Amino acid sequence: MAYELPTLPYPTNSLEPHIDAKTMEIHHGKHHQAYVTNLNKALESAPELTSKTVEDLVKDLASVPDAIRGAVRNNGGGHVNHSFFWKLLTGKSEGKPVGKLAEAITATFGDVEQLKEKLNAAGVGRFGSGWAWLYVSGGKLEIGSTANQDSPIMGKAIAGIEGAPVLGIDVWEHAYYLNYQNRRPDYLKAIWSVINWAQAEENYLAALK
Ligand code: MN3
To answer: How far away, in angstroms, is 32 Cα from ligand 1 center?
Structure first.
């Protein structure tokens, strides 16, 4: 099996009360696991592709055979996005951006409250399932959203936006429904309490390279 479910970097209850343990158990253990399982299943017919990192795999969907491209886009995207998302969360959030990312947020948006407002609006505005993103494109911070499991790393032709992610917020109902039911805006307000800003800065510095 080429691709594997990463272990969560913290216990499932460590994001409470903002994200409950049951949601984390199901989200990581069932949903993310299913993306990994289905990605591996799809690639049984093209085993040579499994030598790539999953990021490199979804950055170059054109090299994936037609018959499995949709499955790799959805399940490879699901694997990439969730692996990225778990690391961005922590029960010990700094509460505000740090370092070079903090400077860039102030320069681009005025302050972090305006970043939150714009990113939350992108998440609320995404019809159905998808992700809201803060990403770097052409050296600048941008905000946008993608459908389903698309990522800005897949490129504009596929995802509609293109760049290197700094923050990615899952707005699928499975990310919040047990605790927040249909109240996506409340989930999006709460998630800022569990953002790992040191990880976000690391993502930002990597995105600038
Ligand atoms: Mn999800």
So the answer is: 7
Instruction: Say how many Å lie between the CA of residue 31 and the centre of ligand 1.
Output: 7
Q: Is the pTM of this model over 0.85?
A: yes
Any domain includes 168 = yes
In a 3-state reduction of DSSP, which class is residue 147? strand
Q: How many independent structural domains does the chain possess?
A: 2
Tell me the mean pLDDT in the region 124-145.
98
DSSP helix/strand/coil, 166: strand
Question: Average pLDDT for residues 113-139, to the nearest whole number?
Answer: 98
Per-residue confidence band for 1, with pLDDT thresholds at 50, 70 and 90: low
- Give me ligand 1 centre to Cα 27, in Å: 6
pLDDT at 165: 98
Domain range for residue 203? 99-208
On whether both 47 and 148 belong to a single domain, the answer is no
Residues 82 and 103 in one domain: no
What is the DSSP code string of 76-117? Answer: IHHHHHHHHHHHTB-TT--SS--HHHHHHHHHHHSSHHHHHH
Average pLDDT over every residue of 137-158: 98
If asked whether residues 158 and 62 sit together in one domain, one would say no
**105 C-alpha to center of ligand 1: Å?**
26
